[in-house]
Amino acid sequence: MADDETPEAVAEETAAPEAAAPAEPAEPKEILHPKVARKLSRSTHDGSKPAASRTAQERHEERVALRKQNAIARKRRREQEKAKAVPSGNPGTPKPEHGEGRKLVRTGTVVSAKPDQTITVRIDVARRHRKYKKIVRSSSKIHVHDATNDANEGDVVRVIESRPLSATKRWNLVEIVERAR
Asked: For the chain, how many structural domains are there in total?
């Protein structure tokens, strides 16, 4: 103890840290399950007082207003997508609609050429499975119009989509890519 310090000053200094500390220990914070904590943080009210009860008419009006808001946002987004999709060089020409555009062209093997002006073509497809990444092979048979009866069994042919030509024919023969041996 220094000469200029009195016992009362020393007592005040030692009491000061005790006075700064709270008299009672702080209550431990309640530990919540993470899902409950997330739900509480996302909720719109704190739970201290119940939400005001609304009539069915009021709830309906709120839903209608929300739908109008969403419709406006959808319309704005679609307009932006249309503006982005139109080529910058010629904004006046619209994109072709779903039914228009290029016709499908497929390559396949002739499995039957017995009917007149008709061949049956097997189209083999090998694609990677989206989830399992394994190569999945599948095939489909189509009837193709062959006006000149030129294709024979085993030929590799290229076919193109067309209007319905009969009950089962919706394809036309474009060319014979490879003749059977």
From this structure: 1
Half-sphere exposure in the Cβ direction for 132 (13 Å, CA): 5
* 141: nearest Cα among 168, 118, 120: 120
Tokens coding 100: 């228009």
The tokens 């909720």 sit on which residue?
43
Tokens encoding 72: 């406006």
pLDDT higher than 90, residue 124: yes
For the entire predicted model, the pTM comes to 0.46
pLDDT tens figures, 134-152 = 999 999 999 999 999 999 9
Is the residue at 27 inside a domain?
Answer: no
CATH number at residue 146: 2.40.50.140
Q: Please say whether the beta carbons of 123 and 139 come within 8 A.
A: yes
pLDDT band at 41; cut points 50, 70, 90: confident
Q: Is 51 exposed, middle or buried (0-12, 13-18, 19+ CB in 10 A)?
A: exposed
